[in-house]
Design brief:
Oligomer: single chain
Largest sheet: 8 strands, mixed, barrel
Shape: elongated
Radius of gyration: 42 Å
Structural class: alpha/beta
Strand order of the largest sheet: 13-14-16-17-18-19-20-21
Distance between the termini: 122 Å
CATH architecture of the largest domain: Alpha-Beta Barrel
């Protein structure tokens, strides 16, 4: 036994000493799984065991007699003192006192330890037995658990727990420095459709890319957190202006929308963002998060791919949204749905050749709810699956019953929503409904939106091919809005192409819409598809599209959607579409006058009474477009100074919508530079001054009609 050990043992008071022999005391020390050292009242190390040598890297001869400061520096002790923890002070009276600290190895490395102290009083003073446990692994495990508890395991972003803490810190700082905090609630649009067909690993890589793009849009001290599969939150601290949050939202949407290579395909993903601002939208984190989510839902209502700030009005809208969802879940059971039917008419014969089934909802509390409001909600909640099947079954049953009643067999068109289309049981459902109703498959037409098929071409092609094998007809709906790749489009076995209503609505007065409409008709015919224009409401729209080869129409011009009983009556009556009279039997020369002064129009008509023209007159440019669409007009004579749309703009549009029509401008206060420019670019054939001289007017109009007839003759010669 060493001198220090003998010294220590001799000094142990007999009534306090452990009842152990020196040998048994040695065995006790050496068998301990943890380092043990005995320290005297002057903080000198008296004894250490073998485990101490292993952990600390010292030979015992290097530490015996040394100050404990060499192993547990005073700076650590002070740190623990201030924290209310353990202290290596031999004056401490309790027999047991534990605490965490840091120790130093021989190589200077620090490591966390847990120290258990046992003060022993002897006749010579007090010694302390210190049992030291290396808790490095425990600390690492604890740190890992804390990390996992506060971070998303896939992306490494903060999760809900840490987000709450980050928001709290940002709010404290904002209060101190009189600043604002913004919370952005980010939800990706049609995320399930985006992920459809991706493997688990590929989907994970996509989410990591998304997380990286979000982080790239914010500052280092801002926070991006993941709250769910496709839901993220962004905390923007130290804001001076609320508008700055909008700029970040724009940047996020722009960055996210960049094409993303996901496995073998390149995809685009948009997001809807809701923004709440502290302090006006909430004083605490939970309120800000809730209000930002409310704003996000409003952004989705507006058409997705945009951002929206929170307001009290939005809160009311979400409450209404929740009420609607509750009612919608009970609507089928309560038999609140009905199907209305809108006829589809042949533009060659005028006969009805089909009809579209349209869902309607009448709720006791909400009244008549617009499909534009409840269909997206049904899609979002998954209720569209049972509701869609009910519509399909009702439409097929009605169609079969009408055929049995003696009506001409024709196809009923039923829309398929995105969620229905990607439902694995869709083909079996349609086959079962056809079998139950007894309707031949050729009398069912399924409408599929263009945007749906272009997002995942290969899987969409497989589904559409499976539907086609059933024998049903297929049409592509809302064509012109989905940016189809034409090389993909020609691979799909569609029978009909449905022109989007936005082009039909503007076709008579918007040259761009007119050009798109004509292109769609030509494209469809080249692909051996029929074209149907929906939403036709005026005679002008009907005439313009019919004269340019459109095959079919539906819209209010012939009939609004009707309840089943009213529609059955319409079918029984056999009412057909009456077309505007064409040029046969009409005067060959048709003149359109456009001037906001009705007196002047009357004067011109009197001056031309003997010329044999059929004269159409209007005081509004908008009515002029409608007249041009409905009639084969050879010459347009328009004033240049009119309210709403001036004559230059009106005639410029006419030149693009009806390039064969001769355009003459007339004014007493014209800007000749503008007139000259319009003539040079072909918008105006000739300019006449006011007040006009009757004979000169007659001569100029006669020459204009000659020019029109010459151009028509050249056209017919070419064809």
């Amino acid at each position: 036994m060493t001198h220090q050990r003998r010294f220590a043992m001799k000094k142990i008071d007999t009534d306090k000493a452990l009842p152990l022999s020196e040998t048994r005391f040695d065995d006790f020390l050496e068998c301990s799984p943890d380092p043990v050292m005995i320290v005297d009242d002057r903080h000198r190390v008296l004894i250490v065991n073998r485990r101490f040598e292993t952990i600390f890297g010292y030979d015992r001869s290097e530490v015996i007699g040394s100050s404990v400061e060499k192993l547990i520096p005073q700076r650590f002790i002070h740190h623990r003192d201030n924290a209310g923890g353990y202290c290596l002070n031999p004056e401490i009276r309790p027999m047991h006192h534990s605490g965490e600290n840091f120790a130093l190895r021989k190589d200077g490395s620090e490591f966390p330890v847990e120290i258990h102290l046992g003060p022993i009083t002897t006749a010579e003073g007090t010694v302390v037995v210190a049992t030291i446990r290396d808790i490095s692994e425990q600390k690492q495990n604890q740190a890992q658990l804390e990390y996992l508890a506060n971070h998303d395991s896939l992306t490494g972003l903060p999760n809900c727990n840490l987000l709450e803490d980050r928001i709290g810190q940002a709010l404290l700082q904002a209060k101190r420095f009189q600043q604002q905090v913004a919370l952005l609630f980010v939800d990706f649009d049609r995320f399930k459709l985006f992920m459809a067909g991706l493997s688990h690993d590929t989907g994970d890589r996509a989410l990591k890319k998304i997380a990286g793009r979000l982080k790239a849009c914010v500052r280092e001290y801002d926070t991006v957190a993941r709250l769910g599969d496709d839901v993220f939150a962004i905390v923007l601290a130290n804001l001076h202006e609320s508008a700055d949050a909008g700029k970040v939202a724009q940047n996020v949407q722009k960055n996210v929308l960049r094409p993303m290579e996901i496995g073998p395909r390149v995809s685009e993903l948009s997001c809807s963002i809701g923004i709440s601002i502290h302090p006006k939208d909430g004083k605490d984190g939970r309120t800000l998060l809730k209000n930002a989510e409310v704003a996000m839902l409003r952004a989705k209502e507006k058409g997705r791919g945009c951002f929206q700030f929170f307001t009290d009005e939005l809160n009311d809208r979400i409450a209404s949204h929740m009420t609607m969802e509750r009612c919608l879940r009970q609507a089928l059971e309560n038999q609140e749905f009905s199907v209305h039917y809108q006829p589809q008419m042949d533009l060659r014969t005028g006969r009805m050749i089909g009809f579209e089934a349209l869902l309607r909802w009448q709720n006791f509390d909400l009244g008549a709810v617009s499909p534009g409001r409840f269909i997206p909600l049904a899609e979002e909640t998954g209720l569209i699956i049972p509701i869609g099947e009910w519509v399909l079954r009702t439409a097929c049953m009605d169609n079969k019953n009408w055929q049995k009643a003696g009506c001409s067999p024709m196809a009923v068109a039923v829309n398929l929503s995105p969620r229905q289309f990607w439902d694995p049981g869709l083909v079996d459902t349609i086959a079962r409904v056809l079998d139950d109703s007894g309707l031949e498959p050729r009398y069912l037409e399924l409408e599929i939106t263009e945007g749906l098929v272009v997002r995942d071409v290969e899987n969409a092609l497989a589904m559409i091919s499976a539907l086609k094998k059933l024998g049903v007809q297929l049409s592509i709906d809302d064509f012109g809005t989905g940016y189809s790749n034409l090389s993909h489009l020609k691979r799909f076995p569609f029978d009909k192409l449905k022109m989007d209503i936005s082009f039909v609505r503007e076709v008579t007065h918007d040259p761009g819409c007119a050009a798109i409409a004509k292109t769609i008709i030509a494209l469809a015919h080249n692909l051996n598809l029929k074209v149907i224009a929906e939403g036709i409401e005026t005679e002008g729209q009907l005439s313009y599209l019919r004269l340019r080869g459109c095959d079919e129409m539906q819209g209010f011009y012939f009939s609004k959607p009707l309840p089943s009983q009213d529609f059955e009556r319409l079918m029984m009556e056999g009412r057909s579409l009456q077309f505007p009279e064409q040029s046969e039997g009409r005067p060959k020369r048709v003149l359109l006058l456009v001037d906001d002064e009705s007196n002047l129009l009357a004067s011109i008509e009197r001056a031309l009474r003997q010329e044999g023209y059929r004269i159409l007159a209007t005081t509004k440019a908008s009515e002029g477009f409608e007249l041009l669409a409905k009639n084969r007009i050879g010459v347009v004579l328009s004033d240049l100074r009119m309210p709403g749309m001036d004559g230059i703009e009106f005639l410029s549009r006419v030149s693009r919508l009806h390039p064969e029509t001769i355009r003459i401008a007339m004014s007493g206060y014209a800007d000749m530079n503008m007139v000259t420019e319009a003539i040079n670019r072909g918008a105006i054939y000739k300019f006449l001054s006011k007040p006009f001289e009757n004979q000169a007017l007659r001569q100029n109009l006669a020459k204009a009609f000659e020019q029109y007839e010459l151009s028509l003759a050249r056209h017919y010669d070419r064809t």
